Amino acid sequence: MPVNPEELREIPAFRDLPVGQVQSVAALMVRRHFAPGQIIFVEGEKSGSLWFVFEGHVRIIKESSNGRLQGLCLMTRGKCFGGCPLFDLDNNPATAQALDSAILFVLPGGAVEHLRQHNPDLVKALLHIYSQRLGHLARVSEVLGSWSVSERINDCLLTYARHPARQQSVVELTHEKLAALSGTVREVVTRHLNLLERQGIIRIESGHIVILNADALLPPCAWERQQSAV
Amino acid sequence: MMVSVELFSRCQPIAGLSPRTQRCIAEKATLIEYAQGNNLYVQGDPPSALYLLQSGHVKLHRQSRDRCQILALLAPGDCLGAESLPTGAMSPYTATALTPVSAVTLPPDILQSLLDEHPDFQEAFLRLITERLKQFVSLVHDLAFRDVTSRLAMVLVARAEVEGTVHDEGILVDRLLSQQEYGEMVGTVREVVYRSFKRFEDRGLVRLTRDSILIRDLEALRAIALLEAR
C-alpha cells in the first residue's frame, strides 16, 4: 500500500522538505504492518532500508550470544531507525521488533541510494537523525557504565513515561521490557518497583505504572536535564 | 596555522573527498594545538568544530556529578566533534586531550557552508557520524553483556592493534590512562581495575611499568575479551 505525502509530512525528518521532494520520497516508500512481537530485522543481517514509525512502538535491542537482551531505545511515532549498513556496507548493528501493532513506512535501500545522489536535503535529514541517535547512545553508554541498577530503572521510568511534564505520568512497559532497557533481569525490576511503591514514589496498576513523584526518580545527571529545560 | 591538503591523508573520509573539496577545506581550516588536560569541547556546550586529529590522544567522556564514563579513546587520523551540528543540540559529551594534541579544526559556520555547498562533504560527514554510531552500539553491547575483565582485555587488545609497537616479549603500548581512567572506560572503580591487571600479570598476559603496558600474550587477551557474561 502506498504512502500518502500528507502522512509523510507528519514525520519530523520530512516536515521541512519542499512539497515536491516529499512527494518524490513518498512515491518510493512502502507501507508495512507488523504484529505485536514481530521481528522487523535482525542484528547481523544486511539491510539498507530506512524505517519510519507511523503508528505503534518498536524496540531496538542487542542480544548476547547466550540470549540476554539489552534495549537500546524505544521508537515511537515519527522516529526513524535502520539505515546504518547503507553507509559502511556492514550489517545491522541491532535487532528491531514491533512491541504492538505497528505501521511503518519503509524507504528501501536502493531508493535511499538514489535519493542520496539526487536530493541533498535528504542527506541533511539523515544527518539530523543520526546525530540524535549518537547523543542517545552516548547517554545509554554512560547509564550502563556508571549508574547503579536502581538509577537505571528510575531513568527508564522517566524516559518512557507519557506526559513526563505532568505530575502523574504513566509508563506502559512490562517489567521484562523495563529490565531489557535498563540492563538487568525482571526479578530485580520487580523488587525495585515494589520498593518505589512502598515509598509512595509510584503506583503499580494493571498494565502500567503511575509515577507519583517524578523528582524522586531523577538520576545523577538531573542537572543536565534541568539545564536543558531552561 | 595554515593547513595543507597533505594533513588530511590520515583521515580516510576526508582524504577520499574530491581535490576541489579538500582544497576548499584546507583554505578554511586551521591547525590548533591543545595542552594535555585541555578540553577541545565540553558536554552541554553548543555544537563544536570538527577536529581531524594529527597528533596525540583524546578521550570522549560523559560526566554526571562525580562519575565519569569514557566513551572512546581517539588517536591520530580520527575525527571528532560536530556530532550535534545537524541538530543544533548541545554536545553529548566532552573531548579532553590526554596528551599534547594538534588538530586540524573547522568551526561550525565553515562546516555548515561546506555541508551546503559540497555534496561529497555531506557524504563524508554522514560516514563519520555512522562510524561513531557503530562504535557506541558496540560499547553498549560490551557494557551490557561483558564483565569488567573482558572489557579491560578488549581495551588492551584494541590499543595493541591500533598503536602497539613490536617488542622482544610482545607488544608495547603507552600506559596513556591512569587506573582510575581505565575504570571509567570499562565501567568500574580503580580497585577492580587494579585487581584485573594483577590477575593478567599473574597469568603472564601483561607486564605493567610506570609508563607502558607490555602485552605478552595478545591471543589470550583476545579470547578473554570475547567472553560474554552468563
* CATH-defined topology of the largest domain in chain B: Jelly Rolls
What is the ordering of alpha helices and beta strands of chain B?
A: HHEEEEEEEEHHHEEHHEEH
CATH class category label of the largest domain in chain B:
Mainly Beta
Shape of chain B: globular
Largest beta-sheet details of chain A: 4 strands, antiparallel
What is the helix content of chain B? Answer: 40-55%
- Which percent band covers the strand fraction of chain A? 15-25%
Whole-number tally of structural domains of chain B: 2
Q: How widely separated are the two ends of chain B?
A: 53 Å
Contiguous uncertain segments of 5+ residues of chain A: 222-230
Strand tally of chain B: 12
Q: Give the name of the CATH architecture of the largest domain in chain A.
A: Sandwich
CATH class of the largest domain in chain A: Mainly Beta
- The mean pLDDT of chain B is 89
Strand order of the largest sheet of chain A: 1-8-3-6
Question: Using DSSP, what is the number of strands of chain A?
Answer: 11
CATH superfamily of the largest domain in chain B: Jelly Rolls
Strand content of chain B: 15-25%
Q: State the shape of chain A.
A: elongated
